[in-house]
Amino acid sequence: MTTITRRALLRGGLLAATGVITTRLAGTAAAEPHRDGFAVAYNDLVITPHAPPWPSLWMGGYGWTKRGSRGAVARDLHAHCLALHDGDRGVRVLVRVDVVGIPRDVHQEIRRRVCDQERLVASPDFVIVASHTHSGPFLGDTHPDPYVLMGLEPADIDAVNGSTALFIDLVVELVRRTVQEQPIPATLHYAEGSAEIGFNRAGLDHVITDVPVLLVRDTDDGAPLAVLFGATCHPVCRGRDDVFDSDFVGAAAEAVERELGVMALFFQGTAGDHDPVGGQGPHRPAELGQVLADAVLDVVRRDQFTPVTGPVRGELTEVQLPFSVDLGDPGAVAELERKYRSRLDGHLGQAEVRHAEVVLRRLGDGSFPRSFPMPLQCWKLGGLTVLALAHEVLSSYHVLLKGLAGRLGTGPLWIMAYANETQGYVPADETSWRGGYEAGWGAGDPHITGAGSNMVAYGWPAPLRGSPVGAHPATPDSTEAIVLSACEGLLR
To answer: Where are the domains of the chain?
Structure first.
């Protein structure tokens, strides 16, 4: 947190130092929310790991060797929570966290505790989104697998899991306190700006420059309370070192907060194939963050917003994306095992050998799921639809979904990725056909995870299925068709 005084925090904010949550004293109690309008509560929690109490300082975001922090921090990592009370129709909760991604089991445990155990919010009305900073803590031991990705020893993996448990506790407590806080009657306002901060590293001909901005104002006097904003770009400006850093997204939020004096919350877009312009280095997050902050502030100063109204309608669904290999076919599995055994001869890198070991064991005991689960979530409001997609979704989906929304006449659409869980890349056909890191295959074989590809990092045995090369539209059993069909159902 920066040290400036914020009106939002004086009305009841959360701070954390070394993993211990403290609460600032609230000012004058807020009025009861209007029965037919919005009211908000919002809080900020610092989740930068320190030992103790965090058992692990191992870092996530890069392979293929060990990488951990020695305690240095450039910019704190944050978890923010906004509880949107929709009159007497219930509460919606939006959480964003500065981590590279949230594994499926971690997401499910947070959702179980928040929605089922404590009944703080209904499941369709709870979203948690990762910023995807590559200078944050490693979470979980599944996808990615810290043994495959970094070669961690069992004791190190136990420490990672200890930090993961602490992270879960902190997020649940943040949600609990925010939902139970007295909300402030508020109005919502949406507009979009533009910032050229990234390039398409996969060589596709589109670059996403949209900067969505949602401004929260006090109903009584119109003063800003909080600002939510987004962009589409990997937070890897800092580069691969051992310093915790929220990267350019945190720098942008800090710059917005200094200017407006209110809490700023960043949400990542379909950034799977977008990297930042201008190279890497310790100075780059502040430079690129200022570019993004200027775009947000320009939107706020122009003040040409569309009112966003209730009621809010939320829906959460999950689709199953097929692998390019049918893991239910014994013959196909036997052929895949043969390919992986050939990788154990030492001609590939150590990470690929570790990956082959794990894949062969899991193919042998049948513990791989036969498809790749992908949660999809949608909140529909008057004047704005928010579509939250799990995993590292590639920018082709931004283009495809914006086109779909235009044909359906849904109005403004904010597309978030890295939502709820992040367990791999989700390519559209144009990337699947090319192969490479984002597609998950290489060396002319789309039926085994490619050496050095994202599917090694995330620990999967094969890439996701695409349509036959050149097919248009996408075939019904392809990743692209399944994702677009489910999103169309949500948007309708």
So the answer is: 7-311
